[in-house]
What we know:
Blueprint: H1 5-39, E1 44-45, E2 48-50, E3 58-68, E4 71-75, E5 80-85, E6 92-93, E7 98-102, H2 105-138, H3 146-178, E8 181-183, E9 188-193, E10 200-201, E11 206-212, E12 216-223, H4 224-227, E13 235-240, E14 243-255, E15 265-272, E16 284-291, E17 299-300, E18 306-308, E19 311-317, E20 324-328, E21 330-335, E22 338-343, E23 350-352, E24 365-366, H5 369-377
Parallel strand pairs: 1-24
Antiparallel strand pairs: 2-23, 3-12, 3-16, 4-11, 5-7, 5-10, 6-9, 7-8, 9-11, 12-15, 13-14, 13-16, 14-15, 17-22, 18-19, 19-20, 19-23, 21-22
Amino acid sequence: MRPKCDERENLSFVSRSRWLAPAVLLPLGLACCGEAKVAEVPVRPVKAMIVPAALPDRVLTYSGVIAPRIESALGFRVPGKIVERYVNVGDRVTAGQKIARLDEVDLKLAENSARSAVIGAKTRAAVARDALQRANYLLPNGFIAKAAVDQRQLEMDAAQSALDAAGDQLNQAANATSYAVLVADKDGIVTSVRAEPGQVVAAGQAVVTEALAGDVEVSVAVPEQEIVKLTPGGTASIAIWSAPSVRSEGKIREIAGAADAASRTYGVRVTIVHPVPEMRIGMTTSVSLNLAQDVSAPVVPLAALTQRDGKTIAYVADRLTQTVAVREVETDGVSEAGVRIKSGLKPGQIVVTGGVQFLKDGMKVRLAKEILTAAAEQPETADR
C-alpha cells in the first residue's frame, strides 16, 4: 500500500532535517566560539615611563693639566754675563728675592763716568752763574752792555740744562748697575731655567720662568661638539689622578675663541676655587664639567612615537583606568636622551615607550607597579 501524502511529506521532512540540523547548528557554534575568543583576549602589558619635567645635568669628564694662571719669563733688563744663579727649578721665591746676577764691572764703569760728567756740569754751571751775577751788577752803572748780560744769561741756561742731562744719565747708569741683579717681582714657583752661569745674555732674554702664586687653573681640551654647551662661570669638579680622593671645585674662566689647528679642540681654562697642597703645577687631573640640559621641552625615547596618517602620535596611559589614548605630538629636535616634545605631552603623564604600533585608542593595558606608584606621586595634570 502506498503511504498517504501526509506520511510522505512527514518522511521527507525528517530526512531533510537530518542534513539541515548540522548546517544550522554550525554557524551558531562558530558564533559562540568567536564570542569566547573575544572575551579571552588578554590585557596587553606595555612598557611605559613618566614624562619628565626636566632633564638632569650631563657631566663630561676630560683629562687636564694643572697650570698657573700667569707664568712670566724673567730676564735682565741689561746685557751681560751671568756670574751667579741663586734658584733652581721647583724653588719657591718671594717678591724681591734674588734670582741671578750679572758681571757688573762694565756697568760700574759707566756709572762712574756718568758721575764724573755730573761733577763737570756742576762746575760749568757755577762759572756761568757767577758771570751772570757780575754782569747784572755792572749793568745799572753802564759798565756793560745789555747784550753782554743776555749772553751771560744764555750761557747760564745752557750750563743748567747740561747739568740736568748729566744728572739723568747718572741715574740711568745707576739703574743699569742695579739691573745686574735679577729679582722676583712677585711670589711664585720657578718652573724652568733657561740660562746658566757663564752665559752671555741679551737684554730681555729669559733666564728663568716663574709661575706666579695665586690663581691655579686646569687646562682642558674640549671637542667642538661639546664646546657650544659650555659658558664662562660654569661649575666643574677637579680630581688629581695620583690621588682621586683629593678633589676641589672649579669654575670655567676662559673658553678659547678658536680651535687648535692640529687637534681641532678648544682650550678651556678652569680655575681651582680652593686648591689644596696636593695639587701641584703640572699634575694630570680629571675634570668633570656640568652641562645644563634644555629643560624647555620634555624628552621621550624614540620608541614612544609612531606615525599614523602622516602625523606623529604617542599613547598616553591613564593610571586609574589603565587604558591608552592617542595624543598627536609635535617634536622639537633630537637630543642624546631622546626626542624633545614641543607640544602634545605634559610632564607627569604616563607615555607608552614600547610596542606602540600594536596599540589602539582606548585599548586596555597593564602597567608595571613601579610606574603606577611613581605616577601616583606626581602632581595631577590637566590632561591625562
